[in-house]
Design brief:
Distance between the termini: 51 Å
Number of helices: 10
Oligomer: single chain
Radius of gyration: 16 Å
Largest sheet: 7 strands, mixed
Shape: globular
Strand content: 15-25%
Helix content: 40-55%
Bound molecules: the ligand O=C(NCCCCc1cc2cnccc2s1)c1cc(-c2ccc(F)cc2)cc(O)c1O, magnesium ion
Number of strands: 7
Strand order of the largest sheet: 3-2-1-4-5-7-6
């Protein structure tokens, strides 16, 4: 039977990356996406901006909405301090299965909790199910029309504290107009736009970094 693109990406990781070496996993995926098949990982250019935000925040507790194949999960987890954790949500079971194997190959399974399901269902359950208090960093990379409702949901569920950072991918392409409008005009957030490009292309895209003011 025909393989899927995530499965071919996983094969590229197995063939080209060193087990236990997250940076080689990231490099193998970027090479696959540049030389073989485009895929919707954050990519190397926006990935460097992600890396700088993670190292600046030095988070103990991270939430990622949208795992896909685990590329950004691996980038984030490889920079976390000891005992820090990332919870990542993925809607598509086939993508989640590939992500688990890419995360395992990178040797980061201890730091990462991958949950299969939708953000709307799971955000209200994170405190009771996983003993989460608040998140220091949230990376939004899931359905673009869910960025705004899920941000409001996280506020309502008490998952954000004064100083929590939201980092949103694709605010230009595919675009998240309602989210940008809200977050840039809300007195409860301080926002900053990082101009970049859609992964592996010359199309404009960017990341929006927002600090929750409480
Ligand atoms: O759709 C994108 N990412 C979201 C996949 C949604 C799946 C999930 C929903 C959901 C709900 N709850 C919990 C977890 C999850 S995971 C996406 C698309 C492009 C793109 C595609 C074509 C194109 F021509 C130009 C850009 C680029 C990107 O960087 C993307 O991130
Ligand atoms: Mg994205």
């Amino acid at each position: 039977t025909q393989s899927t693109r995530p499965q071919r990406m996983l094969a590229a990781v197995h063939n080209n990356a060193t087990r236990g070496d997250p940076r080689s996993v990231v490099k193998a995926i970027d090479q696959f996406c540049r030389q073989k098949e485009w895929a919707m990982n954050i990519g190397d250019e926006k990935g460097c901006i992600l890396d700088s935000v993670v190292s600046e925040v030095n988070p103990a507790m991270v939430l990622e909405l949208g795992t896909y194949c685990g590329y950004s999960t691996v980038r984030i987890a490889s920079q976390l301090p000891p005992h820090a954790k990332i919870i990542t949500l993925e809607f598509n079971p086939q993508n989640a299965a590939v992500a688990r194997q890419i995360i395992a190959w990178a040797g980061l399974g201890e730091k990462i909790k991958l949950i299969e399901g939708s953000s709307g269902d799971w955000i209200p359950k994170l405190k009771e199910q996983f003993g989460v208090d608040t998140f220091d960093l949230v990376f939004l990379d899931h359905w673009k029309d869910r960025y705004l409702p899920d941000t409001k949901l996280m506020e309502e569920c008490g998952l954000l504290r004064k100083g929590s950072i939201l980092l949103a991918d694709n605010v230009i392409c595919p675009g998240t107009p309602e989210y940008l409008e809200y977050i840039r005009n809300s007195p409860r957030y301080k926002s900053q736009y990082f101009k970049s490009h859609l992964e592996y292309t010359r199309v404009e895209d960017g990341l929006e970094k927002s600090i929750f003011l409480g």
